[in-house]
Amino acid sequence: MSAKSTVESGGDAASEAPDPARWRILAVLLVAIFMSLISVSIVNVALPSIQSGLGASQSDIQWVLSGYALTFGIVLVAAGRAGDVMGRGGIFVVGVAVFTASSIAAGLAPNAEWLNIARFVQGVGSGLLNPQGVGMIQHYFRGAERGKAFGYFGSAVGVSVAIGPVLGGLIIQLGGADIGWRLTFLVNVPVGIVAIILALLWFPRPLISRGVKAPVDSDQPARRSRSMDLVGALLLGFAVLSLLFPFVESGLSALIWLLLPVGILLVAAWVLWERRYARRGHSPMVDLKIFATRSFANGTVIVTLYFLGMTSVWVLVALYMQDGLGHSAFEAGLVGIPSAIFSAFSAHWAGSRVVVFGRKIVVVGLLIALFGLASTVAVVLLNQVGLASEWWLLLTLSFIGIAQGVVISPNQTLTLADVPLNYAGSSGAIMQTGQRIGTSVGIAVVTAAVFASLAFTDWPVAMAIGFTLIAVVVLAALAVAVVDLRYRARTGTR
Question: Where is the Major facilitator superfamily (MFS) profile domain (predicted)?
Fold first, then answer.
């Protein structure tokens, strides 16, 4: 089967007429997903204000970031499966409500402990709503429209990463050091309320009751899939926690790294349980057969490696602009604006053409990413000797924005093309879990390498070292993409 026919069939050979409300549904999904993802990056520039405003310790500040990342990653797959089983629209609304309520709690936090609890809960809300977005795009869109929908999804991801620091810096500048950081949380509240209202108005209702047959495009999954697999959810949740925790709290104790082998053992236990659960005639949390599908396995590795490397770019750029060159948080955020714009346009462009070009478009995107990394290092080193202004980063980082749009949304479409709709939420959540693990590990390792190098060199050289590490990871992603491209060429698919 060609890539084009596979994407058009959605892995289920669905031929039903598309739901006329699908674009309104997508709009609600993207608003909420953008809100949840921007909360990852917007907080970075608010940390100094939070520390001074609440008298928080360095450990407290670390947990403002780590707590959100942990709970977000832990609940993703279980939440995706819950949507597959109980209906994605309902879980989505619950997730947005939890996220919005916890944003209020964070914005009104009287102390660091309260703020960190709110951030834990906020991560749960984000983990609940995000897999439903992927699952509902799979459910409501077919063919080229699905690629276009994932293009818009990729735009939301790319813009949220780049625009978060800019928006955070602007809000803090307008609100002041005492109020500004609170507004970075409270800004979510009106967005969340609007998303809930529109979801209740626009999302289709499941019509399953005695004598009433559910419509084909209902958000209610098939009867045979009604199994939450709680043991599988717990095993995978603790496995993700064990794998993530050492990287988000690496300074706690050297013994914390013992959690890594524990996490690996828990993953193995989860796989054994899922196989046993399926043999007993139940529907497992994740259909492990999807990993035998080359498109899903390769695409998941690519996106994990991509986030392992590229997410650190914006952390390093913010540190370099502020600590290395003495710019304000707002000025540091400005260099990401062109990148965000190009990311939005390139994601839409690539998503609309993935049916035609297939994996080739991802390969090109990764090559553009490597060019963006190399040219950024060149600007930083030339700036050190007075041959280039740091504001040339506006141009070089634009290539990274283009790459982000060209890689993420087409890869999402290709990776999920052959996944059955009954597992769309949990399979999409597997990809997002890979992103979360990649992000946490990548930021921890790359920033540690940069700070270690600062002990014997200056910021430009440290930046070059950090970007070189990122480039090595992107090269690994490129190698997997090329292998997948050759496989598709041999099998006659795109």
Answer: 25-488
Sign of the dihedral defined by the CA atoms of residues 300, 303, 306, 308, in that order: negative
Block residue for tokens 């260099």:
335
pLDDT (tens digit, 9 = 90+) per residue, 338-382?
Answer: 988 898 889 888 888 888 888 899 999 999 999 999 999 999 999
pLDDT at 14: 42
* Residue written as token pair 């039903």: 16
The 3-state secondary structure of 144-198 reads HHHHHHHHHHHHHHHHHHHHHHHHHHHHHHHHHHHHHHHHHHHCHHHHHHHHHHH
For the domain with range 3-8+18-206+285-491, which CATH number is right: 1.20.1250.20, 1.10.340.30, 3.40.190.10, 1.10.540.10? 1.20.1250.20
Q: Which residues pair with 212 in a beta bridge?
A: 209
pLDDT, tens only, 37-84: 787 778 877 777 888 888 887 677 777 877 887 888 888 888 888 887
The widest CA-to-CA distance across the chain, in whole angstroms, is 77
Give me the residue spans of the domains in the chain: 3-8+18-206+285-491, 229-284
Alpha-helix runs per DSSP H in 87-142? 88-107, 112-140
Query: DSSP states of 231-247 as a string?
Result: HHHHHHHHHHHHHHHHH
Per-residue pLDDT at 420: 73
pLDDT in tens, 112-135: 899 999 999 999 999 899 888 888
**Dist. CA 320–CA 333, nearest whole Å:** 11
Query: Closest Cα partner for 381 from 472, 465, 466, 464?
Result: 464
Whether 165 contacts 45, CB under 8 Å: yes
pTM for the model: 0.79
Q: The tokens of 199 are what?
A: 């979801």
Tell me which amino acid residue 217 is.
D
Res 251: pLDDT: 66
Structure tokens at 179: 């109020």
Task: Report angle CA 318, 323, 326 to the nearest 5 degrees.
Answer: 100
Report CA 133 to chain centroid distance, whole Å.
12
